[in-house]
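Form 7-S
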Amino acid sequence: MTGRRVRYSGRRRRAPLRQVRIKPAADAGLKKVFARIGVPPRKPFTPDPFQLKALEAIEHADCLVTAPTGSGKTWIAVQAISKALSAGRRSWYATPLKALSNAKYEEFGNLFGKERVGILTGDRKENADAEVIVGTTEILRNQLYDVMGSGGTLDTDLVVLDEAHFLGDEERGVVWEEVMIYLPSRIPLLMLSATVGNADQIARWLSSIRGQRCIVVEDHHRPVPLFPLFLHPSGMLLPLMAGTRDGAKRHVHKKVAAALRSRQAQRLGPSHRLPPFGDILRVLKKFRLLPAIFFLKSRADCDQALEMCRGNRIEDPERSRRLQERTDELVEAAGPAVARHPQLRHLRHLAVASHHSGQLPAWKQVVETLMSEGLLDAVFATSTVAAGVNFPARTVVLVNSDRFNGTEFLPLTASEFHQMTGRAGRRGMDRIGFVLMVPGKFMDIWQVARLITAPPTDVHSRIRINFPMTLNLLLSHSPEQVEDMLERSFANFLLREKNRKRRGSRQSLEDLKADFQRHLSFLKEKDYVDTDDRLTADGVWAARLRIDQPLLIAEGLRRGLFAGLSAPRLAGIMAAFVNERETDEHLESEGIPRPLRRDHASFLRGLAPLVRDMQRRGFEVRPFYLKPAAVLHAWADGQAWGRLTAWAQMADGDLAMLILRTADHLKHLRSLRREFPKVAAAARAALDRILRDPVDPGYYTGEERLEEASVDEQGLTGIDL
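Output:
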């Protein structure tokens, strides 16, 4: 049947394309480019002009630094923190990711001394009174809430916001904006980002609300030049672009254009299967383009890609020995679950790994460490790797020109493209970096060619009103003062600059004020705020529930629904509150304890009136599913990890994330020791049960246990732990 044409609806349809084995080759025009591959000569470090300018700026103003990934933005922060330490001042370094916070904590501990550095994330609390604190931006925002509520001030003299472009993040950007609004103007603000298109606009806004100048320091020079390549279906590497480096004159190379016009271009990436990654690795290896990061669209693709790399043998015996020894060291430290990981053989013997949110955090740490140390040939990763995780490579490989945003696939933006390609080229290890485009059904080469020279996209306001914000602002502000604060928002500034038609700035100030009043009215109706617009006693403790659905949990506490729950049952119920993705589909009812079923039904009945009222007012309420409750109950009750993931049909990383988010919510219950001492004690016991291997046991530290001593001293008894 091969080659036969079939008639269908009066049209001819060609038989499916065969995927052929490619042969490594390179266009003659790349000879000079590839000659640049190698390690640059070592030379004494000399700061770049933009680094010195930023250091000077932060001495007397706020500063927003925008420079390519790997250009040395962290050096600026290190020097600013070092100078603050020398003067007896304190610093706060905020990042968007727990993994990045952990990395910076280790880095700063080595630089400044471990006794001078602490960490505060949802997972760790160590040395919280240190002179230098590293943590997530949410923790910094919560500290600002605390000091505003108590009438105090943040105990720091410098704040660094890493990955400052998160101001425009759809889900979490509101936290960055709150920090920028609430931070006292006496504290200098240093912001670092590689991808901000409207830096001057953000600086004007900050200058207007903080009463001091915000200086923008920009640098567009990549310390390691980036060269874009195209992989012809035959296996030949071609330069993607031709012409001058002037963006207006550069164009797609004529040989690439010819390949794209032929049907051959589909052979490397047909819609029904993955490109031949093993063959692509052979091409990269032949021309010394490894190590590489392959960005793929899904977890399943990342895992499947490993099986296509069976022929990727490590030719250097010494490197093979070092890889296996280092892997064994890291795996032993990571725990038994990582030692049983099904992809460990790919790591040890093929020098390839998969990295995505479905993996255990401890496994991802092993992969990141090995890649950073130059022991792996390739990592197959989803695009989340681009957001701040530091393991660069010589080459970044793109198979798709779109990205899944959690709901749908959308074309890559310039900022997303720059984030991904920012991983190409290791400073101090490479003289040149590469980005390789693999043709296929979901790769628009013409679009990617435009992104290469496109400036970063603009950052827009994502501020929105929610109940935690409303409750916490009312601790220290009157409604009129809150509305004045909303006038200082980035969203309102954008409108004042007549950007009404721009994406992300459509919400008017009146919309924000109306939404605040809607939340305020509902809190009054439910007796969290009195008629004088002050928080009631219930409102004060509810403000400490800085979680996704605080009113539902507060109502459960007021109605006594949490009373008498054992530690496993409490862990289960809290998991139902934090759940975002797990439904009751494929729920196997066998083995779910009757007490947990009764608890679940009791919460559904007890919270039903509040849920109806919230939905009637247009407030979002997540479904309260039984499955996540059953999963966490089983884990807290001692179920083995492997049996639990199989029963729940959950990926390791998803289960770990559910456990860690549940733990974060339990910490908030634990904080209500005075108001609900028995519930707080049960929450503490639940934390002990769920934070065990393979979930990071460092989450609940000795420092936090000391904080609980007062609960034990109360002589609480009769709690089923």
